[in-house]
Amino acid sequence: MDLGTIFGLVIGFGLVALAMILGGGVMPFVDAQSALIVIGGTLAATMINQRLPYVVSGLKTAVQAFIDRSSPKADLVPLIVELAAKARKEGLVALEGEQIDDPFMARGVRLGVDGLSPELISETLQSELASIKQRHERGQQIFKFMSSTAPSMGLVGTIIGLVQMLKSLDDPDKIGPAMAVALLTTLYGALLAFLVFGPIAAKLANRTAEEVAVKKLAIAGVESILKGDNSMVIQSKLESFLSPDERAVLASD
């Protein structure tokens, strides 16, 4: 569970709600018409921008902003060194029954045990990594698009509200609701864009970068195992993928 995302949303909306309460209450800021224009308009534009299955799949990726399933890169290094040492001593076939929790790396080792060439295995893993990046980036693009569209839909709502207000100048009872629509759509669009859609898109991009880094390290590790590199060479090669802090953690283990 990513507490940063949860705390950020709670604190952000909580402070906005508190400001509303201190100013007289939350209910004046609740307007169904404004919500329909901003939320409905943003979703409609997103479905026009992308194929429906991609939209549904992209919205589901928002879960990744709340759940952190990534594993530290440093955790793979001792495992790779251990597998490489065993492969040098007993041959690649000895790795057939090894329990490898990382499915991506396990796939590379299994292909090596099956006798595929290191070049073909590396190409296969690189292609799989590119496919993973493409799927993740599609979800990010959807939230980036929603982040840029929500304020625009807020502007549309503002224009609608102003038109309604101008047409109702002879009826003072209708001016207030129309003005509320004009202002609240802008508020809803800004909140959704800068407190929800934009941060989620950025968080998903960070998740992808972290996953790609782990998988690149795994590819380098599999290549070293297949080449029969010794433990010191592998350790040095893999540490180049780690930050100074990650190296310090690895050295302390």
Question: What's the gist of this structure?
Answer:
Helix content is 78%, strand content 0%. It is mostly helical.
What's the arrangement of secondary structure elements?
Layout: H1 3-22, H2 32-49, H3 52-60, H4 76-90, H5 103-113, H6 118-167, H7 172-227, H8 231-239, H9 244-252
Helix pairs in contact: 1-7, 2-6, 2-7, 3-6, 4-7, 4-8, 5-6, 5-7, 6-7
Structure in words:
The chain is mostly helical and 253 residues long. It has nine helices and no strands. The protein has one domain (31-74, 119-252). The chain has helices at 3-22, 32-49, 52-60, 76-90, 103-113, 118-167, 172-227, 231-239, 244-252. Helix 2 packs antiparallel against helix 6. The chain starts with a helix and ends with a helix.
Summed over residues and divided by their number, the pLDDT gives a mean of 88
Share in helix: over 70%
**Helix/strand structural class:** mainly alpha
From the spread of the alpha carbons, the general shape counts as elongated
Radius of gyration: 26 Å
As a percent range, the share of strand residues is under 5%
Number of helices: 9
How many structural domains does the protein architecture include? 1
List keywords for this structure.
single chain, 253 residues, mainly alpha, 78% helix
